[in-house]
Write a structure and sequence with these properties.
Two copies of one chain form a homodimer.
Chain A: H1 6-28, H2 31-38, H3 42-49, H4 52-59, H5 74-91, H6 94-102, H7 106-124, H8 132-152, H9 156-159, H10 163-179
Helix pairs in contact in A: 1-2, 1-4, 1-6, 2-3, 5-10, 6-7, 7-8, 8-10
Chain B binds a DNA duplex through helix 3.
DNA sequence: ACCCCGAGTCAACAGTCGATGACTTAAGCT
DNA sequence: AGCTTAAGTCATCGACTGTTGACTCGGGGT
């Protein structure tokens, strides 16, 4: 039998919620399904997180972990960024959960705006001081469009693309948005 | 009183459904709300379209109306494409309905793949015969990312951007994907 | 051994949704 | 006017959902 460990159960619920939100979106994810994945009653989820919306906010708290770009050579910028984004996309489902939910939830859309304004824009400010918010939005649009097409729409040519091929295609685009 | 005109009612229902799907996505759109928008009973919607999914398929049938790109000069390509996409985005809600729904519905995602493979890729084939599917996917990712960030996430710098500014930013990107 | 507190369960409520089938009403035709 | 056909309504079903409150169970401290 599962040991009665509240902290471990909470972490397991967060992991299951992330996977469900990433795969099914916010609306089609049910608290009962998340609880069943962990082998626990749905009422316990509410007890720990208060509501489905609060569970989502905890589960979809995204940290891109962008590195300090100060001193990175212009030729390396795009490679560093694309590499980081691929890792975030494929390491854990948090990003995909936020992306899927943002399509229909104003709260999730706001969270995504917060990621762009609070993480991407500050990181890019180390590279350019000319309209960093506008450049961050364009970089965000590029990266979100790529992720949407690859992981959500699953358009074959992008699904089959390797990380290196993506860097080759996206590199000049990011350089353009960052430096022109 | 509304005249009893089945064809007109059906068109009104399709228009209302498009608006609802575009604003709220597939799951949060209810047949009752669509029917109420037209001033009609929900059962009538099922009678005309069979199911909510079938109503969506009829409402979100997207025609980009891309022009024949044969003979368009390389320098004009991006401007023509961006201009066409803006018109599709802002003329009617069909595109937004499909985009929002595609985030959580495999059927809608398939429809979006169909638009890329059946409309974008053939149009681009008039410009390049080197990997048109891959180039269409990249153009799609760019355009979908821009639309997602502007109309769904409503990131301020992209919301405030004029069509001309967007053409200036996106032009070199589309040229890169089409011609490099 | 007993108690106690927190982890986890159970049953149920209240609301909503898509869908169904029988019913009613309006309009065009003879 | 009367009838017929289709347009539209009505009540309702059955399933599902988030959330609640009362309950049970198990393990650690005395």
């Amino acid at each position: 039998m599962r040991p009665r460990d509240a902290a471990a159960t909470e972490q397991a619920l967060l992991a299951a919620a992330r996977a469900r939100f990433a795969a099914d979106g916010f609306d089609r994810t049910t608290i009962r399904a998340v609880a069943a994945d962990v082998g626990v009653d749905a009422a316990l989820v509410i007890r720990y997180f208060g509501s489905k919306q609060a569970l989502f906010s905890r589960a979809a708290d995204l940290d891109l972990g962008l590195p300090d770009l100060t001193g990175v050579r212009a030729g390396d910028l795009a490679r560093v960024l694309v590499d980081r984004f691929f890792t975030v996309w494929e390491d854990d489902p948090t990003f995909l959960a936020l992306l899927r939910a943002a399509a229909t939830s104003e709260v999730a859309a706001g969270a995504m705006r917060g990621v762009l304004a609070g993480q991407v824009a500050p990181a890019l400010a180390a590279v350019t001081d000319d309209r960093p918010a506008e450049r961050a939005a364009l970089v965000g649009a590029t990266v979100l469009g790529f992720a949407l097409t690859r992981y959500v729409l699953r358009v074959p040519p992008l699904v089959e693309m390797t990380r290196e091929q993506a860097q080759t295609w996206l590199g000049p685009v990011l350089r353009h948005y960052l430096l022109d």
